[in-house]
Amino acid sequence: MKASYIPLYRKYRPQKFSDLVGQDAIVKTLSNAIKLNKVAHAYLFTGPRGTGKTSAARILAKSLNCENGATVDPCGVCSSCLGVASGSSIDVIEIDAASNRKVEDARNLLDKVQFVPVSGRYKVYIIDEVHMLTTEAFNTLLKTLEEPPQNLVFILATTEIHKVLNTIISRCQRFDFRRIRQDLLVERLAEIVKLENINISANAVNLIARRSSGGLRDAISLLDQVSILSSTGKEVSENDILTLVGCLNDDTLIKLSDSIASKDTGTLLSLLDNIIQLGNEPLQIARELMNHFRNLVFLKSVEKIDDISHIIDISKEYLPDLKAQSERFEVIEIVQIIDKLSECERTLKTTTKQVLHLETALIGIANRFDINIISELEERILKLELALSGNMPISPKPAAEIKKPEPIIKPVEASRQIEQKDTVITPKVSQKPAETRQAEQVSSQSSAEVNGEENIEVAWKQLLENIESIPSRMFFSSLATPAEINKKTVVAVFKNESFAKQAQDKSKMTPFESAALKYFGELPKIIMRTALPDDKPVAAQTPAPVKPAPKVNYEQISQELEETNKNIKPSVVVDESPSEPVDEEVTEEMNRLEAPAIAEDLPDSARMVLELFNGKLIN
To answer: With the C-alpha atoms ordered 526, 532, 535, 539, is the resulting torsion angle positive or negative?
Structure first.
């Protein structure tokens, strides 16, 4: 029976420190620790996958327990070295933290570490993917990691160092494994190709190195996969690798980018449909385009291509075409395109309609939606400057395209206009000739438009006479003084805030607005407020002095009113003059605003009380 096939990444796993690729600093530090007998009790290896963390841990274990002594070059043939390589060594225990992550597993481990090494000098515990341990399991290991038994070494390996507790990291010597450079990967792959006699082109080997993202294990695994294609006697080419891993070739990416540069949406969608019909996933297409524009921004940002040739993920034969294409974009434009593709990638990971979202994203990029192009902005600014300087006229828009701005109505004015519309008070039709009415209106308006002190007092007096509600008229005449009166604005000033708030009430404001509308012919902006520092003294603005009302015995007046109301019926004034029909709601509002009728034969003192209190009796 033939032996089972050993994958290349296992067959060519590093067996000595000298076999580790691209980790020179780590190799030197660990080698010196062994030579100087300064081996720490705990190590923490972190870095991307496939960079040699677990291999370095095994090499360190072999170097410490080799029968030839603690050496940087283990023999690899003794029982200890063979046991470590096969995973059967009693003194070197490998633990997968993903399947042994509970606190009970950590306690079992602590029970076993108390035993001394059996055949070797050190007992080594290699805990892979240590970030998978729970917080409780980490806390269980803390004390042992800090002060382990003699000749005990912990080697922790992880790809996600941020998930490891800081208390664990502080108790270990940390080594960060870096991604392996592309030239070192190509060199190692070429050695394996030669040893395995694989028929593959040099460009294909370079492509494998570029697609491995700095991980040697991934590169060797891909080489192992494509080596099967060469068994038929045909040389493996770049297109074979692209087809195998589902990537786009450089020619297709350049065509897609050309259609985006020229804003040719039709060609873009046609190319995209052909690519998808060949079985390529939308998510992979977005990633390939991101990588392509990454190469473009690198070429656009530097002058010498040789300085960045090792980080550009493209064949050398396509470098001139890529350089020419980079001239069609601006750096800021490419950066924004990469950002849009990155956003599209996040969307494609969660949506069920990947093709639709990819198509719309590329259409938006081709038409430069939300992408600012500096050259276009500079051109527009230059044209505007030339037009303003008179060197180039600005072509006006047709009159049909110019929209007149809608008038802006302040909220307060709008509400008052609505109230005015809803509560229109139709004044009685005057019997005077039209010429006389027009002359009086012009005279009153001209007197109100002048803000002189005397004219303000006259206009204020005439305005108050137009208030039909007697209580409202008495309220404003006794408590308010005018600060400004004209067609646009009427400002009434009160001595305190409570009176100003009462004036803004609808029962007071509506009669005042009706009077202003009747007086000016239009509704001005009415402001009720307290006095400001810039206002003239109230005494200077008050109208002509009024004789103080005589002292009245209100109890006597109340008794007189009660007796009078029993015997006197309120008179009703009927306007027999013809008038236009009025809306019922308006009529009700007018009736509400009308003062109650007062008997003519009442004493003067009783009449004054009725007017002050809106006809209500005061007990």
So the answer is: positive
How many CB atoms lie under 10 A from the CB of residue 148? 19
- 468-490, pLDDT tens digit by residue? 888 888 888 888 888 888 888 88
Q: Which residue type occupies 405?
A: P
**Rounded CA gap, 550 and 605, in Å?**
9
Query: What three-state secondary structure class fits 43?
Result: strand
SS3 529: strand
**pLDDT confidence band for 258 (50 / 70 / 90):** very high
CA 135 to chain centre: 34
Provide φ and ψ at 128, rounded to 5°. Answer: -90, 150
Q: For residue 436, give the nearest of 428, 447, 444, 426 by alpha carbon.
A: 444
Q: Is the dihedral of CA 319, 325, 326, 327 positive or negative?
A: positive
Task: Give the SS3 label for residue 483.
Answer: strand
Distance CA 347, CA 275 (A): 20
Please write the tens of the pLDDT for every residue from 179-238. 998 889 999 999 999 998 888 888 889 888 888 888 999 999 999 988 887 766 778 888
Model confidence pTM above 0.85:
no
Q: Provide the 8-state DSSP code for 542.
A: S
Let me know: does 197 contact 163? Beta carbons within 8 Å: no
Give me the mean pLDDT over the 309-333 stretch. Answer: 81
H/E segment holding residue 497: helix 497-503
Radius of gyration of the chain (CA): 48
Q: Buried (b) or exposed (e) across 169-194, using 16+ Cβ within 10 A? A: eebbeebebebbebeebbebbeebbe
Q: What values do phi and psi take at 504, rounded to 5? A: -80, -5
Give 424-433 contacts, CB < 8 A, sequence gap 24+: 424/586, 425/468, 425/514, 425/517, 425/518, 425/586, 425/589, 425/590, 425/593, 426/579, 426/580, 426/582, 426/586, 426/590, 427/518, 428/575, 428/577, 428/579, 429/577, 429/578, 429/579, 431/577
Q: Is the distance from CB of 18 to CB of 31 less than 8 angstroms?
A: no
User: Which pair of structure tokens corresponds to residue 172?
Assistant: 């270990």
Of the ranges 189-203, 324-338, 548-562, which one carries the lowest mean pLDDT score? 548-562
DSSP output for 457-468: HHHHHHHHHT--
Would the pLDDT of 532 be above 60? Answer: yes
Structural domains in the chain, CATH included, are 8-176 (3.40.50.300), 182-244 (1.10.8.60), 246-374 (1.20.272.10), 412-541 (3.30.300.180), 554-612 (no CATH)
Residue 583, Cα to own-chain centre: how many angstroms? 55
- In Å, what is the CA distance from 618 to each residue of 17, 173, 196, 443, 560? 110, 96, 118, 42, 12
